[in-house]
Structure formats: C-alpha cells, structure tokens
C-alpha cells in the first residue's frame, strides 16, 4: 500500500485465508495524492414495462395513451411533452417526487426513441437492446438488433484497471422462467452472448467480498477488521470516520443477507401457489442488491455496473411490500391500464424510490476530489418502453443522476425532439414514426464524455451537445 493507485482502487485488506475486502479512498494513506485521478464511472438502472406517462412526464397530463390505448391508432403528439425543444427548469412530477432532495443532481431527458425491428417480441427486444441497439437489420443470423452493449464498450476503456471490468446485477430471483434470456438481461458481451447477472445477494456478496470456509465460523467483516486494526491507527480523524462508516455499511449488508436467507428458508417450507421468492420483500431485495453495487463502485471493484430491477413480460407476481397486501404482476397490470392505472402509478413511484435511495447513498460518499460518488458518476435510469400498455418505443423515460465529474449538466429537463404523428398498430405492436432522436445519441454522448474515441454508436446520428457542460 505505497501508492495512491493501490490505495484508491486496487488495494485489499487481507483477512484470514482468502478473505478480502476492498477499501475506499483514504487521504491519510495517500502517497502522491496530487497525482490521483478520480476514475470515470457509469451505472445503468433499468425499469421494465415502461411507465404511466401522465404521472412521469411533465406537461403530458391525461394523455391519449391513457384514454385510447385499446384503439388501433393514437395521436403520438400527446405522448410528447408539450414543452418546446431545449433546456427547461426541472419540475418533478408525482412519480419523480422521491428525487426531491436530489433535484439539482439529476436531469430528465425526453424525446428519445428506439426503432423497433419487426420479427421479435416487443418486450424481449426493448430489454435486450436497450444498451446495444444496432441499426435495424444491420446484423445477420439474429432476429435482434443487438450488438455489444454500451457497458462493455465503456469498460474496455474505463474498467481496465479494476478487478471486475463490469458487474451485472438483477433483482429477478424467480426460477419459473418461461421466457428467453432476452426478456431478462440488458448486458451483452456481443450478439446473443449474454453477460450473466448476479441475482442472489449472498452469492453476489461472496463473489465481491470473497471468503473461505473459515468464514462459516466468523463474519467476513470481523475477519477483515481483526486484520485492519493496525491500519486504522494510521488514519486521520476524518478517515477513521469514513473507515468506520464503510465497514458498518458492509456489515449491515451482511446482516441483511443473513436475515433474508433465513426468511427464504422459512418460506420454502410453506406450500405457496406462487414461487417462493414472490413473497420476499421487493424493496428490501432491490435496496440490498443496490447496496452491493454502490459498495463495489465506491471501493474500486468496478467502474461500470448494470442494475435490472425486474424482467420484461414475466407474469410471475412480486410482493411490492409497501403497496399491496399480496403479490401482483407488473406485466399483467400494464395490459389492463384502465383498470389498474392507480396501482401502476404506485409501482412506478416504488421503483423511483429505490433509484432515489441509491442516489442518496452515493451522495453521502465523499471522494478524493471533495465531491461525492454521485457527483463523479453517470447513473442512468431508463426503460426500453415509453408506455407499457401501448408498447411504444418512442419518448422513452430517461433520467441521469450525477454529472460524471462535472461533464454533464444537472438540475434540468432537456427535451430533444418535437416529433409527433400517428402511431399505428402493426401485427399487434404499436409502431412509431421514424425521425426522432435516437436513444443511441445519449449513449454516444456518454461514451465521448468519458474519453472514448467513437464516431458512432449503434444507430446514433450524433451527440447531444446540450447535455454537456
């Protein structure tokens, strides 16, 4: 532990055997700290099945999507914000209210589209191609416009020096899968070559903060703390506080995992008419996986992460513990929006609460440049559908938290497209008119801001300069 690079990004405190735990940056231990460079980091938070537009997007109100989604056609103008193209002050809608304390740290982007390539299920394509949308029919031997996803392209540059180039997290632990992997993954090494995601908190914990069989007799954090006491005396007061907070957060994660595992064991003994994991507290599960992701980013285990909060189209119910008294299927409700619209609004708000929780957690982690982890990352919230009931690929819900170290604007609403027109139903799927701003333009903008020399990404047509400082 003699250089800033080792302390800040790659040093591990060694416990007994092979136990290891990564450390965040510590100023007291920094040698040559003036040369330390805050790493570029990116994370993606994917929400399935779109959103209820009238409570998510500013200025849309009671859109025709809500009134006429069973018709064969509807006017797409009402699925666009009625604000003009350009930057506007950010106004938090009911769904975005959980971000109230972070309003100056996030930017809403409206008007971004993807082009649907006919021939596959709309849900499978919107999830699997969200970060990898190639131009339609540009790839051979696959029905999907799916190439290497953005997270892995970014990691080739900004993840070279981390123990894990990328980390993939999923909050779908169900084993009753009736769908293909396309419905349940957003990270891809290449066309139809999935990057497997971590779904079990305990297995994820062991992979990230690995232990040997002796950990069965003692908590991993206890093993590490025993070996770390000699290091702690060398820390200044502020670093001692940071050291204590970091290990307490890891210990809390460990305790939550043990509690949830105990709950899972008890539920497995009960004869249920739904999969056992459907009874698990949904928010607690998402936050626990999110805590693991944040700890990995904080300690330098990775600089690039994807986080999928749920699968597309699965009819398996989940227990949204703070919302309903029994498990419900998000997908089923989306196809009956007239009947379940209030429940769907609750689910949208619920997923935004979990996103806000992770943003707030990042905003409390101070880093070497005096800013927070949230300031130093681009953390993107998004869905591959603009509306779950119509399956539209236009006007997607996209939010970016953080500024990537001061490279992106924050606290604004950027509307990038004024496109409107008639959306037609083709083979049971709503097809939006061509000519909107591609979602890939955002991905290209993020990549270039992180130093990648790309002229184009997927079906991009250029960068979005209004996002850059």
Kindly describe this structure.
The protein has helices at 4-10, 53-56, 64-68, 122-128, 150-158, 201-208, 220-232, 237-267, 282-299, 330-334, 337-363, 439-449, and strands spanning 12-14, 20-22, 42-46, 73-75, 86-89, 106-110, 112-113, 167-170, 188-190, 193-194, 304-308, 378-382, 398-401, 412-415, 422-426, 429-431, 437-438. The chain has one domain (4-467). It has an eight-stranded mixed sheet with strand order 5-14-6-13-12-3-11-8, with helices on both faces. It is built from twelve helices and 17 strands. A hairpin with a 2-residue loop joins strand 15 (422-426) and strand 16 (429-431).
Pick out its properties.
469 residues, alpha/beta, 8-stranded mixed sheet, 3-stranded antiparallel sheet, 12 helices, 17 strands, 31% helix, globular, disordered N terminus
Provide a compact summary of the structure.
With 469 residues, the chain is of the alpha/beta class.
Rg to the nearest angstrom?
22 Å
Strand content: 5-15%
Q: What is the rounded distance between the termini?
A: 36 Å
3D shape: globular
Structural class based on helices, strands and sheet pairing? alpha/beta
How are the SSEs ordered, and which strands pair?
Layout: H1 4-10, E1 12-14, E2 20-22, E3 42-46, H2 53-56, H3 64-68, E4 73-75, E5 86-89, E6 106-110, E7 112-113, H4 122-128, H5 150-158, E8 167-170, E9 188-190, E10 193-194, H6 201-208, H7 220-232, H8 237-267, H9 282-299, E11 304-308, H10 330-334, H11 337-363, E12 378-382, E13 398-401, E14 412-415, E15 422-426, E16 429-431, E17 437-438, H12 439-449
Helix pairs in contact: 6-9, 7-8, 8-9, 9-11
